[in-house]
Structures are given as structure tokens and as C-alpha cells.
Amino acid sequence: MRIVVGILGLLLMFATLWETFESIILPRRVTRRFRVTRLFYQVSWAVWSVVNRWLPSKKVRETHLSYFGPLSLLMLFATWAFALVVAFAMLHWAAGSSLNVSGGPATFRTDLYLSGTTFFTLGLGDVTPRTAMARVITVGEGGMGFGFLAIVISYLPTMYGAFSQRELNISLLDARAGSPPTAGELLRRHARFRGPDIISRYLQDWEIWCAQLMESHLSYPVLCYFRSQHDNQSWLAAFTAVLDVSALIVAYGVGDAKWQAQLTFAISRHAIADVCEVLRVRPVAPAADRLPPKDLAEVRNLLAESGACKCTEAGDQKLSELRSTYEPHLNGLSRRLLMPIPSWGIGAKFVEKSKRTAWDRITSESAGPKAPDGGESGHF
To answer: Quick check: helix, strand or coil at residue 28?
Structure first.
């Protein structure tokens, strides 16, 4: 019986260490179907999202969802640590519970206590190993516990650095595409410059951002659950806006702008598909058309103002094909992560709403009435 428990303890220890290695140290996605870490997030997120439905207001629900990412990470670390403590306690029990204990014989509870104090390097000294095998197990656990805590501490700055880098571009997108970001608003705010080079350079920056996000979120999938600072912003909404604009320019664009849009669309769609694969999210067809025919004409007008596009019926068909390659993935992620997908930013209602943003106030002041001396009136 003790041999069987010892073997189970070794299996539990190596399985936990392997999960830790794959989740923290291995810099690539894991394609193995069954993973304890993935199961942990599926169960914990299912419980968290069910509780979220019972909260009274949208703001409270969004705040509640924002806690899941950091808390789940701490719970995952605690689960790994508890599994290792139990595994070493099983090894001590399999070795005969050879411990110096005052007040009676050692039991499995004593083994568990010694394992916990050793793993967290407390060194209380009230329970000590008595045989050579028990000392070897204790020394091995002490070194492993020290290394485990060091790896966990070094992991957090790396992950939060990736999160900060992601959020920087999302915040910058607010001034260019609104909040939440939309393709229509991005085109509307850039239309006054009538230059394809501006959007082309901007899509080049987002090509790099998408590649960085793909690398970080495939290596650390928990980042997908980390939400942005503001309720109307998210990394999924930013992806949606970038994919929408890229699809428009690929379908209708010409010249260098179309070439850059193809590159940005390719890496963005690749990133979204890989994130769905890592999170085991199936594509879901949208319940309603995000760009009905009555709004398509307005999108084409906004795109034509940039001077780099030629709107044709063939472009309409191409746009529909491109949307079918990424919108189901976005919709699946939206349902899983409870992150709404923004609209295309079309229609009078959306335009009136966008006029209340800081961007419109600044541009309205800069384009205000002229002062009597010929200069512009204002506060500057």
C-alpha cells in the first residue's frame, strides 16, 4: 500500500511540475488536449461567469469580471503549491513517516505539516526527519519550494509587462477610432487628411501589435482574461476594429495601402484563430449582420474619402468573404470572455455619440470661428 501511495505521490509531483513548466517557462503554446491548467480555467471561469449574471448593474458586472484574471492566477499558483505539498507528504508516508515528533507517533497529518513547512522554507524545527530517506525527501522539497517561489515571482513582471504593452496601443486607439473603437470612426477621423499613407503607416504599427499580442497570449493564455482599464475598451474590440479596417482596404483598396492592409489582416486573423485554438473556443456565426446593406454604402463613402479605394461590386463580394473568415472567431471569443464586439460605427446615432468624446471637442475647438484679428478663437 505504501509503495502505491509513493508512486502516486511521484506522479502527482511530476505532473504538477510539468504543468508549471509548460505554463511559465515554455515560451510557446501547448497543443496537448488534456491539461490541468486548461481544465482549471474552464471550471473557474464557468463558475465566475455564472455568478456574474446575478450582479445588478453593468458596471458592477464589468468590475467583477476584471478581478478574475489576477485572482485566477493567484489561485492557480496556490493549487500548484498545494499539489506539491500533498505529493511530498505522500512520499513521507510511503517512507514510513520516519519523523521525530513529540507527543505520539507520526501520522499522515504530521507528514503534511512537515511537507508544508519545508516547501515554504519555514524551518520551524518542531518536526524533523529521522531516517536518511526522510532527510533526502525533506532536502529535495526545500530546494524545490525555493525554486518554485522564485519562478513564480519572476513570472509576474514578465506577464504584467506584456499586459502593459498591450494596453498602451489600446489606449492610443481611443483617439483614432473612438471608444469603443470602430472601423467607421477610424475612417471618419482620418478622412480629412485624404492621404492613404496615414492609415497605411497606422496599420503597419498594428501589424506589429498583433504579432506581439499573439506571441504573449499564446505563451500566457491567462492574459486573455485580463481586462482593460476602461469598461468600453478591450483587446478584442481593438482586434475587431483593426480587422474591419484591414478587410475594407483589402476589398476596395489599391496600391501600397492595400498591400499593408493585407499584411495586417493576415497576422490579425492568424492571431485570433490561434487564440481560439488555445482557449478551445469554437467559431460562432453572428446572430445578426454587423454591416447590413444600408450601412455598407456609408462605409464605402468613408473609405472613398481617403482617396486610395475603388468601390465596386466585386469589392462587396470580397469584403463579405473576408468577414466570414474572422467574424465567427471574434463572436466565439466574445461569448467566452464576455467582451462585446463593437459595431462598424455607422449611422447618425453613433456619429452623435462620438461628438461627445474628447477627440471631437478638441477638433471642434481647433476648427472654431475666427477671431477679429484673423486668428482662431480659443483658450490657447
So the answer is: coil
| 218 in a structural domain | yes
Region for 97 from its dihedrals, namely left if φ exceeds 0, alpha if ψ lies in -120 to 50, beta otherwise:
left
Note down the domain range covering 7: 2-153
Distance CA 194, CA 169 (A): 24
162 and 292 inside one domain: yes
The CA distance from 173 to 231, in Å, is: 15
Asked whether residue 308 is domain-assigned, the answer is yes
Does pLDDT of 347 surpass 70? no
pLDDT recorded at residue 1: 80
Cα–Cα nearest to 344, from 267, 254, 247, 278: 247
Which one has a higher pLDDT value, 331 or 97?
Answer: 331
Whether residue 378 is contained in a domain is answered as: no
Same domain, 89 and 193: no
Residues 125, 163: one domain? no
Number of other residues whose CB lies within 10 A of the CB of residue 298 = 19
Question: Tens digits of per-residue pLDDT, 245-271?
Answer: 999 889 887 777 788 899 999 999 999
How far apart (Å, rounded) are the C-alpha atoms in residues 184 and 296?
Answer: 10
Distance CA 96, CA 367 (A): 84
| Domain boundary residue, one of 97, 132, 153 | 153
What is the rounded CA–CA span in Å between residue 162 and residue 211? 12
Residues 193, 249 share a domain: yes
Which domain CATH number covers 27? 1.10.287.70
Residue 358 lies in a domain: yes
Q: How many residues does the chain have?
A: 380
Closest among 303, 320, 177, 288 to 241, alpha carbons compared: 177
One domain, residues 146 and 207? no
DSSP characters over 94-123: HTT--EE-TTS---HHHHHHHHHHHHTT--
Query: Could you give the dihedral angle defined by the CA atoms of residues 255, 305, 302 and 185, in that order, rounded to the nearest 10 degrees?
Result: 90
pTM of the model as a whole: 0.81
